Amino acid sequence: MLKPSHFPALLAALLTLSLIGPAQAQWKWRDTAGKIQYSDRPPPPGVQDKDILQRPPGQQLKVVTVSPPGTAPSAPPPAPVASGPSKAEQDQVARQKQQEQEQLAKQKETERKNAQTRRENCARAQENMKMLQDGVRINRLNEKGERVIIDDAQRAQETQRTQETINSECR
């Protein structure tokens, strides 16, 4: 059972444990022998990036090039490798996507207009076929501009042509 006199000691112990948390090992890596190592300091320079299993939040392994004593560095440190596409590449990709979308929209609009035209042609062809089959007298204008009633042979030709239109437009 806890006594009231133990509360200050318990509180001090809990406070000490909470302060120890950040001081715990934050780096975790696999050494050359394959053993897992823990430390509050970064791994030695020979450890490859793929072998680092855990880093403290916000820490990146910094590559430091050390020249032998008495010699000047022969080349500047390597530039960091870009992790993603550059702004120009991103803009180009965005423009390509926009062009593809515009082209697709134009294609859909053309298809929609063509479908509307086919529906209208189909409706007209069906109306013409109904008139031809009902035996309604149909007249045409000849080369001189005179009205001439079509005969049975012309009616048969017109029926065949109208049926072909129905077959092609009324899908």
Q: Which short descriptors sum up this protein?
A:
mainly alpha; three-stranded antiparallel beta sheet; 47% helix
Distance between the termini: 89 Å
List how many beta strands DSSP finds. 5
Strand content: 5-15%
- Derived from helix and strand composition plus strand pairing, the structural class reads mainly alpha
Poorly predicted parts: none
Q: What's the total helix number?
A: 3
Question: Assembly state here?
Answer: single chain
Strand order of the largest sheet: 2-1-3
Shape: elongated
Major beta sheet, specifics?
A: 3 strands, antiparallel
Provide the gyration radius in Å: 43 Å
Biased composition (Low complexity): 156-165
Signal peptide: 1-25
Domain DUF4124: 15-79
Pfam families: DUF4124
Describe this structure in words.
This protein is mainly alpha-helical. The protein has a domain at 90-169. 47% of the residues lie in helices and 10% in strands. The protein has 3 helices and 5 strands. It has helices at residues 7-20, 87-134, 152-169; strands at 27-30, 36-39, 52-54, 139-141, 147-149. A 3-stranded antiparallel beta sheet has the order 2-1-3, with no helix packed on it. A two-stranded antiparallel ribbon has the order 4-5. A hairpin with a 5-residue loop joins strand 1 and strand 2 (36-39). Helix 2 runs antiparallel to helix 3 (152-169). The protein is elongated, with a radius of gyration of 43 Å. The model has no long low-confidence stretch (mean pLDDT 82). Residues 70-80 have a biased composition (Pro residues). Pfam families: DUF4124. Residues 156-165 have a biased composition (Low complexity).
